[in-house]
Amino acid sequence: MPAGSDSDSPEASPLTRVRSLLPSLAPAERRVAAAVLANPALAARSSISELAEAAATSETTIIRFCKSVGLRGYPELRIALAAAAARAEARDDRHLGSDITPSDDLSEVVGKVAFADARAVEETARQLDVGTLRRVVAAVAAAGRVDIYGVGANALVAADFQQKLHRIGRISFAWSDTHIMLTSAAVLSPGDVAIGLSHTGATADTVEALRVARGHGATTVALTSFPRSPIREVSDHLLTTVAPETTFRSGATASRIAQLTVIDCLFIGVAQRHQDSARRALKETYDAVGDHRLSEP
Known about the structure:
Domain SIS: 136-276
Protein name: Transcriptional regulator, RpiR family
Structural class: alpha/beta
Organism: Actinacidiphila alni
Domain HTH rpiR-type: 12-88
Pfam families: HTH_6, SIS
C-alpha cells in the first residue's frame, strides 16, 4: 500500500473527495454523491431525511456516505457543502463550471475549457500530498533508471516527463506499448523507479506494468485522480490529481493539465536535488539545438 500522508499535506475539498472516491462507493452511496455533486447548495440546505429522499436511499446510508468521504457526520457535510457553494457563488462559476453543450458558442466553449483547466490545476495543487511528493522526488533523484508508463492521453504526459528528465541527464524511458511496458518492467531492479500514469487508476496495462516492476524490486509510483482505484494496490507511493471531466473533455484534457501540474512539481524537485548538473545539462541541451532555430527578427 502507498505510504501515508504527512501532516503538512493540504486537505482536499469535500466535493473533490466525493468526485475522486465516486468509483469506490457502494451503489446507494453513489446516489447520494450524485445528489450532492448535482447541487451542493441545495444539499447543504437539506435535512438528512430530505437528502435521503432525493437520493432514494436511507438516512443510515447518508451517514455511511459521510464516513466514506472522511467526514464525521451529516452536520459536517452540510457545513462543508455550504462553504463550497459560497465559494462558487463568489467566483460566479456556476455557468462556467457547467457542462459544454452543443448549443454553446465558441466563446462559451473557450470560457468553460479555460475554467475547467484552471480549476484542475488549482484543486490539484491544493490537495497534493507534499509529504508523498517529497518521498517520490527523493526516489526519482536517486534512481539509476526511471521508467514511465501511460497509454492514450496519459502517454503524452509520460513522454513529457521523460523528456524533462532526459534534459537534466537522468536516465529515463517512457513506454506506451503494453508489451514494451511489461518487458521494461521485468528488467528493473531495486534502486530503479517505475511511474504509472492513469487518470482512472484502472488502466489494466499500466497497473500490470507497475505490478511487474514492483515484483522486481523497483519503487513504484502512481499518478491518478481516483485514490481507491486498482493502481493503488501496486504502488509504493500514490500521487493524486483533481480533474472533473465533462462531455467533450472526458479523460483527455483537464486530467492531462492536472497531471502535468504534478509532473512539473516533481521535475523541479528532482532538478533541485541535482542543481549544478541540471543547470549545466539544460544549458548544454539548449545550445545543442541552437543552430536549428530561426534567427530572431
